[in-house]
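#structure-requests
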Amino acid sequence: MEYRNLGASGLKVPVLSFGTGTFGGQGPLFSAWGRSGAEEARRLVDICLEVGVNLFDSADVYSNGASEEILGAAIKGRRDKVLISTKMSLPTGDGPLDSGSSRHRLLTSVESALRRLGTDYIDLLQLHAFDAFTPIEEVLSTLDTLVRAGKLRYTGVSNFSGWQLMKSLAVADRHSWPRHVAHQVYYSLLGRDYEWELMPLARDQGVGALVWSPLGWGRLTGKIRRDQPLPQTSRLHATAQFGPPVDEQRLYAIVDVLDAIADETGRTVPQVAIAWLLSRPTVSSVIIGARDEAQLRDNLGAVGWSLSADQLKRLDEVSVVMPPYPYYPYRIQDGFARLNPPPV
C-alpha cells in the first residue's frame, strides 16, 4: 500500500481508504448502499488492515449513527492500528439544534460520535457541509478547543465551495487556529468539476483531497452499458435521484475507453477508474466502499500498478468537459493559459 501525506500535514494516509456508508443499512439511501452488520464489518476491516488500508471514514448521518457504532465495534481492541475519519454538520433530526456547525452542535456531536465509535479521540473530523448561519470564527474556535482537548487531531471539510474553504483557511491563519488539511469531494472520470477551482486551491493551500464516489455514483462499475437496461442489482434504481445528472452519451464514451484499457491491462473497469484518480494532483486518498468481500478485494486491486501515459491521455480526453466561466478562458486564450496553467 502506498501512503501519502494528507495535504500539507504530517499525517500519512493510505491512497485507498474505506468508506463505511455501507454499514448499518438504515434509510432509503444507505440501505441501498449496503447493510453490513458488526460481524461482516469486522471481516471487511480485517481485509483492509491486511493490505495496509488503515483509514476508515464515516459520518453521523450514515444510517442515523449506526455506521459509527458498527465501525466502533469492528475496530474494538485495535484502535491504535486505525485512523478514524468522521463527519458532522448535516441534519440528524428536525430540531433547531440538530444541524449546522454551531459551538453547541459541534461539542455535542463530537461527544456523541466518540461514544458511538468507542474511542476518546477522532483522527480527522470533517465539516460535512458549510454552515452559512454560524460565523466561521465560532466554528474554527470550537474546533481549536476540541483539538487542544485532545478529542480531535486534524480537521477538514466536505462539499465546500472554493470561497467557503478559502475563507475558512484565511480565518484560521488570522487567529492561529488549526487549518483544514483535507477536503472530502466528489471526483471521478464522470464528474471532474473538482478540477476547476477546488484543485488549484488545494494545490496552493496544501489541502488534500479525500475522494468520495470515485466510480461516478456507481456508473463506472462496468455494469452500465450502452443499449442495455440498468441491471436489476444496481443500486442506481434507488439512489440515482440523490446524485448529479449525467450525460449518458458521455458516460458510454468513458466506459468504452475504460473497457479497452481494462482489456489492455488485465484489470477491471473499477480498478482502471480508481487508478486514474490516484494519478491526479492533490488526491491524498480515494475512498472505496464495498457491500461484500468480493467487491472490496476488486477495488483494492486498483493499487500496485500504474496506467501508462497514453492510457492516462485517452481517459483525460474522453472525460474532459469545457469548464464554465470564469474557468474556461485558459482553454481558449493562450496568454491567459501562460499565467494560469491547468492543474493537470
